Amino acid sequence: MSKRFKRLLSLGLVLADILLINVAFAISYLVRYDLQWFRAVDPAFDVPFSAYIPFAGVLTALLLVAYKLEGVYDHRRGASWFDEFYSVVNGTTTGIIIMVVVTFFYRPLFYSRLLFIYTGVLIVAFLGISRMIKSIVLRKLRQRGIGVVRTLIVGAGEVGRTIMRNIVAQPGLGYQVVGFVDDNPEKGHKDIGRFKGLGSIDNLPRIVQEESIDEVIITLPWMYHRKIISIMAQCEREGVRARLVPDLFQMSLSRMDVDDLGGVPMIGIKEITITGWKLAAKRAIDFTIALVGLIVLSPLMLLIALAIKLDSPGPVLFRQVRVGKEGRHFVLYKFRSMCEGAEEEQQRLTNLNEAEGPIFKIRNDPRCTRVGRFLRRTSLDELPQLYNVLRGEMSLVGPRPPLPGEVEHYEEWHKKRLEVSPGMTGLWQVSGRSELTFDEMVLLDIYYIENWSAALDTEIFLRTIPKVIFGNGAY
Description:
Blueprint: H1 3-35, H2 53-69, H3 81-106, H4 113-143, E1 149-154, H5 158-169, E2 175-181, H6 185-188, H7 204-210, E3 215-218, H8 225-238, E4 241-244, E5 256-261, E6 264-269, H9 276-296, H10 298-311, E7 317-323, E8 329-335, H11 342-345, H12 370-378, H13 385-391, E9 395-397, H14 404-407, E10 423-425, H15 427-430, H16 438-450, H17 454-470
Parallel strand pairs: 1-2, 1-3, 3-4, 9-10
Antiparallel strand pairs: 5-6, 7-8
Helix pairs in contact: 1-2, 1-4, 2-3, 3-4, 5-16, 7-8, 9-13
């Protein structure tokens, strides 16, 4: 995000806040003096709105200062709507309290505490909505290349891939990664999904110039400190911002817990996410929803089974060996969507494969039946997997369950996705489904494992619903 864009955005937010604060004040006056909700107004203290205009001006100034101190107008990439809303609540509370104290000591002939309470509530609501709209608008602009940061990553090791998977999982951050450089020939010239390998680090000055790079993210191990200093100096000469990702003792960033003690940063190791009681809670939720789902959806599943039987010869269910948690094999169940012998025909169709990496996908697969195409587009073919969830072989949310043949071609870093149970849906599905490359799918799976929470599972589950209804990216 350029400095000019930031200034324009800050100015727009300030002007919008001034308008919304005063609209909230006017509505509060209407509720308190005209509608008289909750408490009647003594006729002796019924005053026109014009008498409150100076108070509105003072409150507006106080709130703008409070918001500035709370960092409401600081554009921090990665800050969620909740973070902004929390700052708005803190700033509004501070401003309203100061206003109430000032009016208490000033002791005007007319004064309504309820008016300021109404105003505070409305301001929080209005500014919360405005921040939500801002987030949506920024996301749309960034999708069109407006306000994005053109970024180059230095280093394609574990730390570099951590940055990549965070960018894939959170496109709203607004980073447009041009590619990455690495002195290891096996890494520097090999693409990772959408991220292009641009050769060795020596190419950095040329790439910065040719690709109009705004920011360089350095992810080299700590022992390359001289190289890091040299790169940062090069960036300074080119007028490009350089940011360094700490890699103390090559510790995985996903396990780093950063805290501070009176302003002194402290780095520790946090526990692995899906273990202990968290794993037990996730399993309990999976079991309950799978059991209820199988019971409630049984009439629909019977209709699907009947349609499959009437449409083409062969069994209703398709059974296939997949790889689960820690590499254990299990039998996955799906409604059959292809003609009999489809697996044997795959070798003949290898040249039509549209997927990258060790997976096989064809947009208009000739092996699909008429009913099968509908089932795959709506993901109804996956309903029998609720039985796998009930058995504990799968989870409702998790990485895509791979085939044993796919796992044989995994690179070492790909295997991290096998640390948890595979899922019926996952971050990969709500972020593009079949339109993602294999490496991007793995990056998303690993991001999910490292950042798991009940809230993330809920978000993925809710985002899956429209994807299934509209069939986005499914084939």
